[in-house]
Design brief:
Length: 391
C-alpha cells in the first residue's frame, strides 16, 4: 500500500488538530510533521521528505508567499496546498497570490475547535477531494472499534500522471459533425485545479484586438473570482472582468463566471448576453463548465472554440460533446503541463479533443484558429497578430 506523507504548516492549534484528526483515520495518509512557522517548515522538508505540504496563508508575521517561492526553488514538483479560513474572503487575495506563485490548490479550514457533525463531514469530503490528485491508491480507513461497522470507505485517488493507455487520437466520433472551416466567433474556457496559473499563461498573451469574446469557468467560490478577474485584467491587454447578469459579450473581453453561481449565455436585445443563476450544482460544481458550454453550443454552434485546461474530475465533458456535435472545435491541455489531468484527460479518452497542447503552446494555437477565416495568412496584419501572441 502506498502511503502519502503530509507536512502541516499552521500556527493555529484548532485547525491543525482538526486536520490531524481527519487524516489520521486513513491507513495510507501519514502526517510526518506539524509545525507552526515557515522557518521550521523549510528545514523540516529535507528531514521528513513529505509528498504534500499543507501551508496556512494566515500565519502572522510570516511571509508565506516568500516561503512558497523558497519551496519551489528547491522542490519544484512538491505539491503545496494552501489552507485558508472558510468564508473569510479577506484571505482570498493571498490565496490567489499563492496560486500564482506556484501553489497547487487551496483547502478551506475551520477556526472552531468543535463543529456540528455535518460540518465536519463536509470538511472531510472537501479535504479528501483536494488531496486526491496528489495521492496514490485509495483512501482506506484504519480498522478500529471506533469506526462504524460498515464497509470501509474507498475514495479513488488519481495521480498527476494519468494512464495514457485509454486515450485515443481524436477522430470525428459517430454522429458528430466534422470541424467546420468557417470562422470562430467565441472562445469558451473551462478550468479547475491549477487554473489561475494556466489563465495567467494564456490571457496575457492575447492581443487587445482579439476578435472574439471569451467566457470562462474557473472552479472557485464567491469572493475569489472577482479578485482573480481583476488580477488577470491588470496583466492582460484584453479586458477581463467577472461576468454579471446582462453583460454583453464583446470582442477582446473575457468574462469570468462568478464564484458560487452558474453562468450561461443567451441572445439579448443588444447581442449575446450573460445570465447567472443558482441552479443545482453539476459535477459537484457551481459554476460548472458543462452548464456554460451547453449554452455556448446553443448560441454559437460550429463557430465555437472550447478549451479545457488543467483540473480535477470531468466537468466539461458533456458540454464539449454538445460543442463537437454542433461542429465546434475543442482544444485540451496536455498531461505534462497540467497540475491535474482529470478534466482534459476525460476528453482525451472520449476522443473529443481536436488538439492536445502544452500550456505554453495554447495561446498561439488559439490565436491561429480564431484568426482563421478572418485574415489572409500571408497578410502582414495576420502575421503581426501571430507574432504578438508568440511573444
Amino acid at each position: 500500500m502506498h502511503t502519502t506523507r503530509i507536512l502541516i504548516v499552521d500556527d493555529q492549534a484548532t485547525s491543525g488538530n482538526l486536520l490531524r484528526k481527519t487524516l489520521s483515520v486513513y491507513a495510507n495518509l501519514e502526517i510526518v510533521g506539524s509545525v507552526s512557522t515557515c522557518k521550521i517548515a523549510l528545514s523540516k522538508i529535507s528531514q521528513v521528505n513529505p509528498d504534500v505540504i499543507m501551508l496556512a496563508v494566515d500565519m502572522p508575521d510570516t511571509d508565506v508567499i516568500q516561503t512558497l517561492l523558497d519551496i519551489r526553488k528547491t522542490y519544484p514538483a512538491l505539491p503545496v496546498l494552501m489552507l485558508c479560513v472558510k468564508k473569510q474572503n479577506k484571505h482570498a487575495a493571498k490565496v490567489l497570490e499563492a496560486l500564482a506563485a506556484g501553489a497547487n490548490d487551496y483547502i478551506s479550514k475551520s477556526k472552531k475547535s468543535t463543529a456540528e457533525p455535518e460540518t465536519n463531514e463536509q470538511f472531510r469530503k472537501e479535504l479528501l477531494q483536494k488531496l486526491k490528485p496528489f495521492c496514490r491508491g485509495s483512501f482506506k480507513q484504519k480498522s478500529s472499534k471506533a469506526i462504524k461497522k460498515t464497509r470501509p470507505e474507498s475514495i479513488g485517488c488519481v495521480s498527476k500522471k494519468n494512464d495514457r493507455s485509454t486515450a485515443r487520437t481524436c477522430k470525428t466520433p459517430v454522429g458528430f459533425k466534422k470541424e467546420m472551416d468557417d470562422r470562430i466567433d467565441v472562445l469558451a474556457i473551462g478550468v479547475s485545479t491549477g487554473g489561475p496559473q494556466a489563465l495567467h499563461k494564456i490571457l496575457p498573451q492575447l492581443p487587445n484586438n482579439f476578435p472574439v469574446p471569451i467566457v470562462i469557468v474557473q472552479h472557485m467560490p464567491s469572493g475569489f473570482t472577482d479578485l482573480l478577474a481583476k488580477r488577470l485584467n491588470t496583466r492582460s491587454s484584453i479586458a477581463v472582468k467577472e461576468g454579471q447578469n446582462g453583460d454583453t459579450l464583446r470582442p477582446g473581453q473575457a468574462l469570468l463566471a462568478p464564484g458560487g453561481m452558474h453562468m450561461v449565455i443567451q441572445p439579448g436585445e443588444n447581442g449575446t448576453q450573460i445570465k447567472t443563476h443558482m441552479g443545482p450544482p453539476e459535477n459537484s460544481c457551481r459554476p460548472a463548465v458543462d452548464v456554460l458550454f451547453r449554452s455556448v453550443a446553443d448560441c454559437y454552434g460550429s463557430r465555437t472554440l472550447a478549451v479545457i485546461l488543467t483540473g480535477m474530475g470531468q466537468d466539461g465533458l458533456k458540454g464539449c460533446e454538445s460543442i463537437r456535435e454542433s461542429g465546434g472545435t475543442v482544444f485540451i491541455q496536455d498531461e505534462n503541463s497540467s497540475v491535474v489531468w482529470g478534466m482534459p484527460g476525460s476528453l482525451a479518452r472520449a476522443g473529443l479533443a481536436n488538439k492536445t497542447l502544452s500550456i505554453d503552446a495554447m495561446a498561439a494555437a488559439i490565436g491561429k484558429r480564431v484568426w482563421q477565416g478572418r485574415l489572409n495568412p500571408s497578410s502582414a496584419h495576420y502575421q503581426n497578430n501571430q507574432q504578438s501572441i508568440a511573444t
